[in-house]
Amino acid sequence: MAIIDIKALKGHRKQTYRLLPRLRLKTPQDALEFVNERGFVYFWPIKGIDLPSLWMGVAGERSVAENHDDPGHVSWGWKDDALPKKIWYYGKILRRKATIISLETAPYFYALSENYGSIEEDYLLAYEEGRLTQSARKLYETLLDKGILDTISLRKEARLLNAKESQFNRALEDLQKDFKIMPVGIAPVGAWKYAFRYDITARHMPELPEQARKIGEAEARQKLAGLYLASVGAALFRNVNKLFGWSPELTRRTVELLLKKEVLVRCSHPRDAGEWLALPGLLK
pTM, whole model, 2 decimals? Predict the structure, then answer.
């Protein structure tokens, strides 16, 4: 079995993660081009998950700074300024972490969501089938009825002021990861004078459901898995499965199709055991 060339893999990631000084992101336009190039990235680097992030593209391979004046935090302003501009899709998507998705790639994610075309009915079906909590239902119905609301107002209008913080945040994440709601701006409210403003995804980006309707689920999974491996170069099979949250059977089917098309190669790692997948050009 072929073995991953670690030197080639590190070189690949220095390119795709924009870690080389000459490739660093210096402007909002650089950030947009980076997201469009990769298809999707994290906002922050997430421990234990290999994926490019906006922070690393700006600041390199160092921990996220606690000091708010750190130059690397320019990425925060870029993200906030982009929210109402519809230049990319932002939300807590992959592993419930802040994810930035290109407009070209977003329909492939949406095609795998539990949304079928009706903003007034899809959430009720999810609730009846036990895939949506009562708190998430209340939040969604409030946005549906009241329009765009900031986090503070949304919690109040949904009558969830007495709900636990974890319960409220979980409901927001549930709705985001299934592309039912999305942050669309920032409001100067609350103790920190900073809160997301939310809207119904299909109402804020009505073109998204129509674009997704033309994409089959198998096609969507191949596209997303292919983009992931194109970014990271090599990954364990189980990490592909964990990142997207698909069933092992669906992940296996997707990987086998990509192997058949020779987009990926099944291989081994010189140090880490397990079932590895890699781009053909990164093998010894």
Answer: 0.96
